[in-house]
Design goal:
This protein has helices at residues 3-12, 42-54, 75-79, 93-97, 160-171, 192-207, 226-235, 281-285, 327-345, 395-413, and strands spanning 34-38, 59-63, 69-70, 89-90, 101-103, 109-111, 116-119, 122-125, 128-131, 135-137, 177-182, 212-217, 240-243, 248-252, 257-260, 265-267, 270-273, 277-279, 296-297, 311-313, 318-319, 356-362, 368-378, 381-389. The protein is α/β, with parallel strands linked by helices. The strands form eight sheets. Strands 5-2-1-9-20 form a five-stranded parallel sheet, covered by helices on one side. Helices cover 28% and strands 25% of the residues. It binds flavin-adenine dinucleotide.
Length: 414
């Protein structure tokens, strides 16, 4: 990609031409700098691509066990039969065209002192490491869940479980009870469980009207887009029973029953437990997490870990910024972190760039709601400056979300 098209690309991707200041041309005789990226999801794939775009002289290796990228955004629509997982599945060919070296293997360990990542039998050296491993689950927080984790579906990492849960809903007899549990904050995608509840509510109302979805929410109220989701839930009131302050504590798969911390017991025909979460295991094992042992604190400008030098963390694994754990934010962090890493490798001061967030939630087969958040950097910290919600559900917002997904997927992988 030549200089002009890179400029156009950065501009159209939302990062803006400000990032061009960090852009480098290869310097003859300079030692090859190496960046390793762990995780080829929304944050990591973006970061890998943008390091290469910003400075093609840097060698970038991406470690990602999955051969395909499957989008969690829009996966709730698969559960209601209005979208297919195939349409949410993309490949990594675009990253290869940018010169990213991809190894479809998991990073086994990070050795910060030696600036190395262990992969299989290899030890790969880096000058800077970018870690975007997403989330893992705290199975132990729900009694009985660890033993049943292959059959009690979370479908919170889009893939085979998404299809399995859709099949369970389809094969449930009309009159059945579906139980879905929402974990306490912080978790991946604050509005995601309520989008899921809306889509299952719509599905039951239109296809299995005698059935019911019971939502047991560990939180005191709907965590995101609260008023908008409350209005949607009213439309599905005959099929959707939302119960706040009900943290699931136990699951008994034999009795097909979940127990909340209030002592309430609920029987189900289909269950969807979204377990409590923490940063992906590799971040925990490398001691990138803070005192909570769950999430990684980072510098708000460079995304460098506050615990380990030369290691940057982006995406859902981070904590401390006033931003949701969303794909849109992970993508923005990936770009900002990439340009910061290039600046640091070239001995330059990183630019102060804040992320942005637009988050759509579908609530029926044709309608969606949305929130937009704007941020800026103030004294080295990301602060929110504005939040705007759509007035209500609409088909226009749903259509906008389809344009959003085309452009952001292209920004990550194209
Ligand atoms: C149902 C649902 C709906 C959602 N809807 C939206 C939405 O509408 N809009 C939105 O913006 N966001 C949405 N999200 C949130 C979004 O999916 C996440 O915020 C986003 O995926 C986070 O990006 P990430 O890079 O942190 O993690 P991921 O995208 O999960 O990527 C992490 C990657 O790291 C890899 N990995 C993990 N460990 C290792 C290792 N040791 N070595 C190598 N690779 C490793 C994994 O295989 C994975 O591919 C939704 C999420 C869900 C579950």
């Amino acid at each position: 990609m030549n200089q002009l098209s890179r400029r156009q690309f950065l501009k159209s991707s939302g990062l803006g031409v400000a990032a061009l200041g960090a852009m480098q041309v290869p310097v003859f005789g300079q030692a090859r700098r190496r960046v390793i990226v762990i995780g080829g999801g929304w944050g990591g794939a973006t970061a890998a691509k943008y390091v290469r775009l910003t400075d093609p002289s840097i060698e970038v290796t991406l470690l990602e066990p999955n051969k395909e990228f499957i989008s969690c955004p829009f996966s709730n629509l698969v559960l209601a039969g209005v979208e297919s997982l195939k349409n949410l599945t993309l490949n990594y060919d675009g990253l290869r065209r940018h010169g990213v070296k991809i190894r479809h293997e998991a990073a086994a360990a990070i050795e910060p002192d030696k600036k190395r990542v262990r992969v299989g039998r290899d030890s790969l050296e880096y000058d800077r490491l970018i870690v975007s491993p997403g989330i893992d689950f705290q199975w132990e927080q729900v009694e009985g869940l660890a033993a049943a984790k292959d059959t009690v579906l979370h479908a919170w990492k889009a893939g085979p479980q998404t299809v399995q849960l859709a099949k369970q809903l389809q094969s449930m007899a009309d009159g059945g009870v579906v139980v879905m549990t929402v974990p306490p904050v912080a978790y991946r995608c604050p509005p995601g469980p309520y989008e899921r509840a809306s889509m299952i509510g719509w599905y039951l109302k239109t296809k299995k009207p005698k059935s019911k979805l019971i939502v047991l929410d560990a939180n005191k109220d709907i965590v995101s887009k609260t008023g908008l989701f409350k209005a949607v839930f009213k439309d599905y009131a005959a099929n959707l029973d939302y119960r706040p302050s009900q943290k699931v504590e136990k699951i008994d798969v034999g009795a097909k029953e979940v127990t909340a911390d209030t002592g309430d017991k609920v029987k189900y025909q289909v269950v969807n437990v979204i377990p409590p979460q923490r940063a992906g295991a590799i971040a925990v094992e490398a001691d990138l997490v803070g005192g909570d042992k769950r999430w990684c604190e980072v510098d708000h400008v460079t995304y460098e870990s506050v615990k380990q030098k030369n290691i940057h963390v982006v995406g859902d694994a981070t904590i401390g910024l006033p931003v949701p754990k969303s794909g849109n934010v992970a993508n923005a962090m990936g770009k900002i972190c990439a340009t910061a890493v290039v600046s640091l490798l070239n001995g330059k001061e990183p630019q102060q760039i804040a992320p942005g967030n637009t988050c759509y939630s579908w609530v029926s087969d044709k309608e969606a709601i949305a929130v937009v958040n704007a941020y800026r950097i103030d004294k080295g910290k990301v602060v929110q400056i504005e939040q705007k919600l759509t007035p209500g559900k609409s088909t226009a917002v749903a259509e906008n979300s389809l344009s959003w997904r085309t452009s952001i997927w292209n920004d990550i992988l194209g």
